[in-house]
Design goal:
Layout lengths: L12 E4 L3 H13 L5 E4 L5 H7 L4 E4 L8 H11 L5 E5 L4 H9 L4 E4 L4 H29 L17 H13 L6 E4 L6 H12 L5 E5 L5 H9 E2 L11 E2 L1 H4 L4 E5 L6 H13 L1 E2 L8 E2 L3 E6 L3 H7 L4 H7 L2 E4 L10 H16 L5 E2 L3 H6 L6 H14 L5 E2 L1 H8 L21 H4 L7 H15 L4 H8 L3 H10 L1
Parallel strand pairs: 1-2, 1-3, 3-4, 4-5, 6-13, 6-14, 7-10, 10-13, 15-16
Antiparallel strand pairs: 8-9, 11-12
Helix pairs in contact: 5-6, 10-12, 13-15, 18-19, 19-20
């Protein structure tokens, strides 16, 4: 729910009734609950003009009006603007009239006098339907039109991989939604960069702030996000706003959602579900229009199943889900990323950008990269820090990846050889001879390395000299 000073929804709610006091009461009821963007229309004849002149989110429509009846307006809207949900609000308490209105496309039928408890849920459901229709339309548009509308937004994310392009298309489709977005992926895959792209795409006027919530207890979490009032706890000599208030009109990115305590999860649920929170030490409920993005490198599906995260919070956060693949699943990006990071490092260290032997690429493509893109960047900077000659030393990278190269046997899933143990061999019906097994491994290492014996030796964990001798024997 938006704070009273903010405009929500983005497009106005049109209130159509010939009684001014009814329009005023509806307007006040909606605005007191955060629905501040409304248009009062006391003359039904103006509906066509208003709808033709601007986009309308939903319409509250009276049936009995002079000059033109609500049923005539409803029939016209159903024919020309079926996308707009129409809630009929009338004093006519007749089943036949209600049925006719629903057949003509009415979203809901409410009989006067109207209570807020009856009106608000209907309006919120209509807003949700409108949102879902827009998002479905954007999703269909993005997947039928593969080109990005705003490729410049994703420029900081270095990639040419089809998986990443599809993710960017999805981000463009959901970026303007008010619903939270869950971003998952291993450490170092670039979750925060995607969050920044989503914020820029959202066109929100406020700024984006990041909350690192790992290992925060309930009080620290509440204080970080919601702030506190004076005297809330010993040492709180003045009020302090939290990140939710500072990110008003913008985006709050909450990292490592899976580490939150149950109490903190409950507070977060209230924020994402109702847009409401209380600063520490205060019972005054505040409203927020801050867009929430959350990230986790843990398996959130498993957390939801095992109770590590509240089920109601889990379902709210899964409204939109962006999963970023590990670097080993988009290994074709490695040359592009390496070149970019070497350029970054050269500029920062005030050195000339080096050239490197192409044997480095198959070496890196066969590396597991537990730290993903972030680890490759660190590797490039480390290589540049000790670099002196024009040609970058391959040994720096061989040393960095030694003992953590991927191994064959699990369908190319990129599991470190140290964790394989005997899993892959247990799947064989017949064991090969030692000589045959050695030949298979050598051939696979040469294939993966592009027949580069030094890289193949690194994949096998032996020296190039030992590989050369083994090749001669085989």
């Amino acid at each position: 729910m938006s704070a009273a000073t903010d405009i929500y929804p983005h497009w106005p709610i049109l209130l159509v009734d010939d009684e001014e006091h009814t329009l005023a009461s509806f307007d006040i009821a909606l605005k007191s609950h955060g629905l501040t963007n409304t248009i009062r229309c006391p003359d039904g004849r103006r509906v066509r003009e208003i709808v033709a002149g601007q986009e309308i989110e939903i319409i509250l429509l009276d049936l009995i009006m002079p000059q033109v009846s609500g049923q005539e307006i409803l029939a016209w809207l159903n024919e020309h603007h079926p996308e707009i949900p129409v809630i009929v609000v009338t004093g006519v308490n007749e089943v036949e009239t209600a049925v006719n209105c629903m057949l003509q496309g009415a979203f809901d039928y409410i009989v006067k006098p109207v209570s807020v408890e009856r009106l608000l849920p209907s309006v919120n459901r209509a807003l949700e339907v409108r949102r879902l229709r827009r998002e479905n339309s954007r999703l269909a548009d993005r997947f039928f039109r593969p080109e990005l509308r705003h490729p410049e937004i994703f420029a900081p994310i270095i990639t040419q991989h089809p998986k990443m392009q599809k993710i960017f298309q999805y981000c463009e489709a959901v970026a303007e939604s008010r619903q939270p977005i869950l971003i998952t992926g291993e450490a170092g895959v670039g979750k925060e960069e995607v969050a920044k792209a989503l914020h820029r795409l959202s066109r929100r006027k406020g700024r984006m702030l990041t909350a690192k919530v790992a290992d925060l207890d309930e009080q620290l979490f509440a204080d970080t996000l919601f702030g506190h009032v004076k005297g809330a706890f010993p040492g709180a000599d003045k009020a302090r706003p939290g990140l939710v208030e500072k990110a008003k009109g913008g985006t709050l990115f909450i990292d490592e959602i899976g580490d939150l305590s149950p109490e903190s999860q409950l507070k977060l649920l209230r924020l994402v579900e109702n847009g409401e929170y209380c600063p520490l030490g205060s019972e005054q409920v505040k409203g927020s229009d801050t867009r929430i993005l959350v990230a986790s490198q843990k398996d959130v599906d498993a957390l939801g199943e095992e109770g590590g995260i509240r089920r109601d919070l889990y379902h709210r956060l899964r409204a939109h889900h962006v999963h970023l693949p590990p670097l080993r699943e988009r290994a074709d990006d490695i040359p592009l990323l390496l070149d970019h990071f070497l350029g970054e490092a050269a500029k920062e260290l005030r050195k000339k950008k080096p050239v490197y032997h192409q044997e480095i690429i198959p070496l890196l493509k066969n590396y597991y990269f537990p730290g993903n893109v972030k680890e490759l960047r660190e590797m490039a900077f480390d290589a540049m820090s000790g670099h002196r000659a024009r040609l970058l030393k391959t040994e720096t990278f061989i040393k960095a990846v030694k003992g953590r190269l991927t191994s064959p046997g699990l369908g190319g899933q990129g599991v470190p050889s140290a964790t394989l143990d005997s899993e892959w061999i247990q799947k064989l019906d017949r064991l090969p001879t030692l000589k045959a097994a050695a030949l298979i491994l050598v051939q696979e290492a040469l294939r993966r390395s592009g027949n580069n014996q030094r890289v193949a030796a690194s994949l096998l964990g032996i020296t190039p000299q030992a590989l050369n001798q083994r090749l001669k024997r085989l």
